[in-house]
Amino acid sequence: MLFLGLLLAALGGAATAAILTVRGLGAVLRKGERSRSGWLRAAALLAGAGAVAMYAWGLLHLGYAVMRAEDGGAGSFPIEPCREGGSQLASQVDGYGVSYVPLRFECHLSGGGTYVTSSVPGYVNPVTSVLGLISASCGVLAAATTQRARPPGV
After folding, report:
1. Could you give the CA distance from residue 12 to residue 14 in angstroms, rounded to a whole number?
2. In this structure, are residues 7 and 70 in contact, taking their beta carbons and an 8 Å threshold?
3. Is residue 108 part of a domain?
4. Domain span at 9
5. What is the DSSP secondary-structure string of 26-86?
6. Is 131 in contact with 47 (CB distance < 8 Å)?
7. How far is Cα 154 from Cα 150, in angstroms, rounded to an integer?
8. All residues at 6 or more sequence positions from 63 whose CB lies less than 8 Å from its CB, including other chains
9. What is the pLDDT of residue 152?
10. Which letter does DSSP use for residue 5 in this model?
11. Residue 27 within any structural domain of the chain
């Protein structure tokens, strides 16, 4: 069931990224809005689209790891994503967990510890964070520039 939730979230993220991309490109191509606030707004939308798309990409990887972990049958123990820690460590795995911020797949050990697998590529979390910060910064600057450019009393 977790797999389906992750898959739906990834599809929703892809749709959101597409909408933000179209709006960002529309802001870039708009003839009347060549001001600084217009460019900042476009940059905020496009960086936001990139952040959402990268997070959705990470959700797809996480969903695939969950699908492999929940797959029963022959060869299902130890949990497949947890095998990368080596046979000694994998034999102590008694469950798994997922983290959404940052995106990661964790293997729980019977002794009480956890370790993180490489199911989610290492570039996903840093790129998502940087693009999210760029998007937020450009959005705040665009709003501040727009308010400053308005004449008093409007």
Report:
1. 5
2. no
3. yes
4. 2-149
5. HHHH-SS--SHHHHHHHHHHHHHHHHHHHHHHHHHHHHHHHHHHH--STT-SS-GGGGGG-
6. yes
7. 7
8. 3, 6, 7, 10
9. 64
10. H
11. yes
Dump pLDDT digits (tens) for 2-19: 889 999 999 999 999 999
Number of domains within the chain: 1
154: in domain:
no
Cα four-point dihedral sign 23, 29, 30, 33: positive
| Among 5-19, 31-45, 62-76, 138-152, the range of highest mean pLDDT | 5-19
DSSP 8-state symbol, 151: P
Cβ-based neighbours of 103, under 8 Å, separated by 6 or more: 55, 58, 59, 61, 62, 120, 124, 125, 128
Q: Which residue has the higher pLDDT, 24 or 148?
A: 24
Whole-number average pLDDT of the chain: 88
pTM: 0.87
- The tokens for 64 are 């695939």
Q: Which amino acid is at 103?
A: L
Instruction: Calculate mean pLDDT across residues 66-86.
Output: 79
